Amino acid sequence: MADNHQIVSFCCIFFLKLICYIINVIPWLSNGSIPNPSWIIQYLLQKTFKDDKLKKLEFLTQLYHKQGLFRFDSKIYIFNQKLAQTAINKLEKGAENYLDNSPLKDTFLGSSQKSPETRRAIASLFRKTSIEERASSMTEDIKKMCLKMKQQSLRSVNITHWSLRLALDIVGHVLLQLDLNALDGEQDELLECMVTILHKCYALNEISTDSDEFKQANEGLDRITSNILKDALEKDDTTIQKRLVVQLHEACGFEEAKDNMKLFLMAGTETTASSIPVVFSLLTDYPNIQEELRDEAIDRWSEIMAEPTTSLPKIESLIKEVLRLYPIAPFISRQNNVPVNLGNIHLDEHSDVVIFTWGIHRSPYLWKDSKVFKPFRFLGEESLQSNMYIPFGAGSRVCIGQHMAVLELRLAIAILLHTFTFSKNQSTPDLKFVVDWAHAVVHPDKDMIHGVQTPFLTDPRPLSWCNRKALGLQGQKFAAVILIIFDHGVPNNLNGLNRDKPIERRTFQRATTGVVLGLGRPG
């Protein structure tokens, strides 16, 4: 039975590729029509990709490459650069029923009619300079997470679990200036509500919005958010500038402030917590790349600790490549309330238009080796080949949290790599995705679990007296490590401790992991 299924799948893929080739070699003259896949193409797509809508859409972007758009499930998907840019700038945000049954429907994200006072209060906090002023609090949260991961003394960690709690605490400190203490387990109920709503309902479709489980999660989210807001409003301001929660409350009242806090808690947590597991899933596939990035973090560690906004070119290129290959926001929704023309394409009023970021970023016609993970792609000239790189959207409706997300990712990757080495183990799932089509977010379909150990146990670079600082080991702590080595045995070449003949860090392998983990990195 399995063999028959494989044969059918192979034949369907063959015919799809054949159709794609024929369509793309035949000269095509634009007449303003929007192509619509025929029943035979839709049949082959279903047989090949089952219910994986994202893969179907990605294939259709290659099938209709010359046209630059297509119609599918009553929506118009655009991936031609010029058409996409025009649609982003010319059309209104969202679709007619955008977020209609979502907890975020009454936020400024779900409605373009929210008060300008609310938008100004939010926009002021999300400016790049405002975010960078709070970078040190991000650093402290990430270091706290690493410490708690160490204290568990486990050989593997659920990076999704820790990323969610980290992201929530950073939202609390950076945006709300509150101690939510998610890393201490104080927001597990809130996180459970958020996971039920966003992942279990909207992404996995395991429950419906009419189910009791969803309603209970929604009520729990509303109750917890109300309590957080009340506690925040009772707190005295200790800074000259009013906190965001106070500005929101003064601008729009308690209920609307509460609704927008839901947005910060959910969107601010979900997107970053989805990106970090993807990054480390890829780095466990490419251990040499992981080591190179770790080198950058170690070499610039003192600068990062002194100034968290320090540039890390290789890690920044990695982030850009991950967001190119796996954009967390896979599409941008637009609508038109009146008939409109995009070039020679006519759109009837109330058309649901989707700028298909996932297809644009993975198009072989825009990117060399478009589906290959090339972490240093953005260090060279190739980064200039396409101006259609829109992981956070574009135009006047660009993602307001992009500066916070990038800084948070950069610091999290650097500090985690400085603290741990990540590897695959028998619990590590394959990297597969599900899409929350209501909120335009893509998630790994499972929690990402990886093996961990301290990096210098496997770092092949020589360890000498002059480079011990890179380990964060000074004075007595460095001497303690040497004593541990002597106690547990080292290779015969003890002269390796000589500056001229440094021993390989692999000689640390025979020291017990638990003792070395206990020393940690003080810096």
UniProtKB/TrEMBL annotation:
<dbReference type="GO" id="GO:0005506">
    <property type="term" value="F:iron ion binding"/>
</dbReference>
<dbReference type="GO" id="GO:0004497">
    <property type="term" value="F:monooxygenase activity"/>
</dbReference>
<dbReference type="Pfam" id="PF00067">
    <property type="entry name" value="p450"/>
</dbReference>
<keyword id="KW-0479">Metal-binding</keyword>
<dbReference type="GO" id="GO:0016705">
    <property type="term" value="F:oxidoreductase activity, acting on paired donors, with incorporation or reduction of molecular oxygen"/>
</dbReference>
<keyword id="KW-0503">Monooxygenase</keyword>
<keyword id="KW-0349">Heme</keyword>
<keyword id="KW-0408">Iron</keyword>
<protein>
    <submittedName>
        <fullName>Uncharacterized protein</fullName>
    </submittedName>
</protein>
<dbReference type="InterPro" id="IPR050121">
    <property type="entry name" value="Cytochrome_P450_monoxygenase"/>
</dbReference>
<dbReference type="InterPro" id="IPR002401">
    <property type="entry name" value="Cyt_P450_E_grp-I"/>
</dbReference>
<keyword id="KW-0560">Oxidoreductase</keyword>
<dbReference type="InterPro" id="IPR036396">
    <property type="entry name" value="Cyt_P450_sf"/>
</dbReference>
<keyword id="KW-0812">Transmembrane</keyword>
<feature type="transmembrane region" description="Helical">
    <location>
        <begin position="7"/>
        <end position="29"/>
    </location>
</feature>
<dbReference type="InterPro" id="IPR017972">
    <property type="entry name" value="Cyt_P450_CS"/>
</dbReference>
<keyword id="KW-0472">Membrane</keyword>
<keyword id="KW-1133">Transmembrane helix</keyword>
<dbReference type="InterPro" id="IPR001128">
    <property type="entry name" value="Cyt_P450"/>
</dbReference>
<comment type="similarity">
    <text>Belongs to the cytochrome P450 family.</text>
</comment>
<dbReference type="GO" id="GO:0020037">
    <property type="term" value="F:heme binding"/>
</dbReference>
<feature type="binding site" description="axial binding residue">
    <location>
        <position position="399"/>
    </location>
    <ligand>
        <name>heme</name>
    </ligand>
</feature>
